[in-house]
Amino acid sequence: MNDLCTKEKILKTARVLFADHGFEGTSVRDIAKIAEVNVASLNYHFSSKENLFKEIVTQGFGECAAEMKAYCSAHNPRLEDAIVHLFQYFLGSSHDLVTRFKILMSVKHSQHFSVGTEDENFGPPGGKIIAEMIAAEAGRPVSQEDMAFALGTLYAHITQVALIHHCLYKNVPMEKYPYRSVEALEKGVRRLTALILADLNTSKV
Fold first, then answer.
1. For residue 46, how many C-alpha atoms fall within 13 Å in the half-sphere facing its CB?
2. Domain assignments of the chain as residue spans, ordered by start
3. pLDDT digits over 147-191, tens only?
């Protein structure tokens, strides 16, 4: 097995174990055993469990940011369409979203791990692009406080809805919950985006 395959095998295994047992509840030996590699290989690629955890988080951020960058470059969308696309991306990768969300919640100091992407100053993955679109469509200068509110509210909504859809409503007949269909959820995302922009347009700078 070459180094690249070994590294990917370790990352895949660790991602599941961190999600299931938490950062503190997962040992390097557990990861090595299930990945069927030796501990020396894990130390060679990542040096420590903390570095392995950081790479998993960074990988998730990077994939999402790259998706948004590619979409916006290809389509030059308005904010509303970009947020819906991001929501669709979360739905399409909802299993990974659940796993990474559990990982982030599993360690007390995870917020101090730098993710190493251009979005660091904006928080969420793809946040830099979304912030630029908010600023362009707001109709007036957007303060840092308002930008933090807009980004936080939009990302919190689509993340929560994608998680709930995956965990609770994915396989439930839609006639029972008509407002939980993907189409209805996307409509809600568009509605929230419009409300955020309207609020920014009327907020005092």
1. 24
2. 1-47, 56-202
3. 999 999 999 999 999 988 877 766 666 666 767 788 999 999 999
